[in-house]
Amino acid sequence: MKVTSIIIVVLFSFIWSWLTRNLLPSNISDVKGRKSKRYDEREKIMFAEVFAKSFVGIIYFVLFALLLRIIGISEDSRNLFLKFPEATIIVVALLLLVVNYFLVKRKYTVRD
Predict the structure, then answer these.
(1) What is the pTM of this model?
(2) Is 28 in the same domain as 53?
(3) Which of 13, 39, 46, 97 is deepest in the core (most CB within 10 A)?
């Protein structure tokens, strides 16, 4: 079981590294010296803004959940955040990414 777990972790790490290096712009993935012709300057700025706004939202959500836990409001046994905190944070992060993408896209879209 331990060998399988290690293989899964290493495989996930390789896949994640490949995805971030090949699909994200160089200013996000921090890969120096790679000239990405996939994205122009406007799209690179949009990526950075979407990720920055989403990161701020995720930190806000985690701090808010921590505050609720400290003051005792989230002590319900049916609370999904207490049962699966990682899954909840991933869902919130994906929602923030999608919402911020559309907000930033609207901001950078030229209107006639």
Answers:
(1) 0.73
(2) no
(3) 46
